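New to this. Help decode the following:
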Amino acid sequence: MDTKALSELLIRREPTSHKKSVGTVLVIGGSAFMPGAPILACHGAYRAGAGLVKLLFPESVYDIKNRLMPEVVLMPGFEEDNQSLSPENIELLSEEMVQEVDTVVIGPGMSRNKETIEFILQAIKVIDKPLIIDADALYALSGNVNVLSERTAPTILTPHEGEMGRLLEIDYQEVSKKREEVTLTMAKEWNSFIVLKGNKTVVCSPDGQKCINETGSPALATAGTGDVLSGILAALLAQFPNQKLHTVLSAGVFIHGFAGDLAERDLGERSVVATDLIRYLPKVFKQAQSV
């Protein structure tokens, strides 16, 4: 992926476009201890062009409400005593909530509470839309990757090396030594698209396609940048359902790294934070569409 290829993907919208026609994203996440992660994912999705972003979160986590963009549609969910999402929410996912969205992100800031893990695993099974599994949802998959075989819609995993190592029950350094090989092998075995984050992020598809991203730098080594990436990927998948999924994911990773590069240029390698990526996304899109 490069700027020219990205410009070819980002065709101008039809004059008759409306919020539903350019993609609806549902983010499932948040807990009392990590309210910021789903906020970053929602903001990333909107700045990457989603027409509508919804958030399913624990009802009593007011910090989420106070810090969200006003454009985000709030969907308070059932929760456990520790203010993390409860398995009771599975009924919501079986109703109109999921039918009205184009892509779903699950995991940011959800916690590793036993009951929440149960909800995550059930949700992975029942959500019949393209699903991005990130953060605590990847933790929930540890020892439970068999649930991926029950999915019929596309599945996208976005681990860093540590999370991939946990999924495979090996040391992350073993993943680091064979990033491309491991990602490609597991994409085929799990019938999932895998975005292995890190230096030169690797995107692999179940059919054997592979992309090595060239944007991004150590400036992205800061909390929350992965949540922003999940939002970007979800927004692009929602906007371009007729494009090859591998191409769209590769574009999302490129955009994310490019935003980091622009932020680093202006702010310096050590001063970039996740919210800076969101602020620089418009500049990335503007540059790509001017090619």
The chain has a mean pLDDT of 95. Strands lie at 24-28, 52-58, 73-77, 103-106, 131-133, 155-157, 193-196, 202-204, 210-212.
